[in-house]
Specification:
Layout lengths: L2 E8 L5 H12 L3 E3 H10 L3 H12 L5 H12 L7 E5 L5 H10 L4 E9 L2 H9 L1 E3 L6 E3 L26 H24 L4 E4 L4 H16 L1
Helix pairs in contact: 1-8, 2-3, 4-5, 6-7
Bound molecules: adenosine-5'-diphosphate (2 copies) and zinc ion (ZN).
């Protein structure tokens, strides 16, 4: 059985989560976000959450071994047996190599790189509002909820992530350029990356992502 493994690359705030939600639904793949997995661990007060917190709050990447163990545990669950969508993993070449080693040849890997210029990232991050219950993503200006501060889907009060501040965003962008940009290069050498312009309406970004998936299947 061929398993689709869809990998979304992109800077913090590029729109990975927004597109992942839509793609997961249209492709019927489970949406696996390492950021969400860490935040769930944080809110549940697990040891893993405690370990990840200092890195996340400072805008640094969590160590590879912690992320890889957590990710493999998640994608080893039965709902991922037919494929899955990765949002926020891999973020280092070491993570990409570990994932590649885990594959058994039955995977149909699709890598999409959502590209957004750095100067647009700050406003996206500062205005992001997230639902602590259903993980829905909004933006005070670009994608406001119907009633201010309330999730459209589950009526929970929206929150701002602790790391979505002007102070931390610079560190996160630097981590992206130093550690994650080489991941796109790794995949370019390993069969290709579909680049998508993330600086357009989310509907257009979604259409472009769908083209990537269709072309990969052709
Ligand atoms: P973003 O919206 O910036 O893309 P995420 O929600 O994906 O953020 O991740 C939030 C934080 O969680 C990151 O800044 C990092 O500390 C940690 N994290 C998430 N995924 C990874 C990963 N694959 N490797 C290392 N750290 C990660
Ligand atoms: P990532 O998961 O890559 O960090 P998100 O999907 O959480 O990114 O998007 C970051 C912020 O930018 C959110 O507030 C989201 O509503 C907003 N956003 C997402 N896509 C777009 C877009 N195409 N145009 C404008 N704002 C967007
Ligand atoms: Zn919600």
């Amino acid at each position: 059985m061929v398993r689709t493994v869809l990998i979304l690359l992109g800077a913090p705030g590029a729109g990975k989560g927004t597109q992942a939600t839509r793609l997961a639904e249209s492709l019927r793949l489970p949406h696996v976000s390492t950021g969400d997995l860490f935040r769930t661990n944080l809110s549940q007060g697990t040891e893993l959450g405690q370990k990840a917190r200092t890195f996340m709050d400072a805008g640094n990447l969590v160590s590879d071994s912690l992320v890889i163990d957590m990710l493999f545990d998640r994608v080893g669950q039965p709902d991922c047996a037919g494929g899955y969508l990765l949002d926020g993993f891999p973020r280092t070449v070491a993570q990409a190599e570990a994932l590649q080693q885990r594959f058994d040849g039955g995977e149909d890997r699709v890598v999409i790189d959502i590209q957004v210029p750095d100067e647009l990232i700050v406003e996206r991050i500062i205005g992001r509002q997230s639902c602590p219950k259903c993980s829905a993503i909004f933006h005070t200006r670009f994608n406001p909820p119907t009633s201010e501060g309330i999730c459209d889907h589950c009526q929970t009060a929206l929150t701002q992530r602790a790391d979505d501040t002007a102070e931390v965003v610079g560190t996160r962008l630097a981590a992206y350029h130093e550690q994650t940009a080489p991941v796109a290069e790794y995949y370019r050498q390993q069969g290709g990356v579909c680049a998508v312009n993330g600086n357009q309406h989310p509907d257009k970004v979604f259409e472009a992502c769908q083209v990537c998936v269709t072309e990969a299947a052709a």
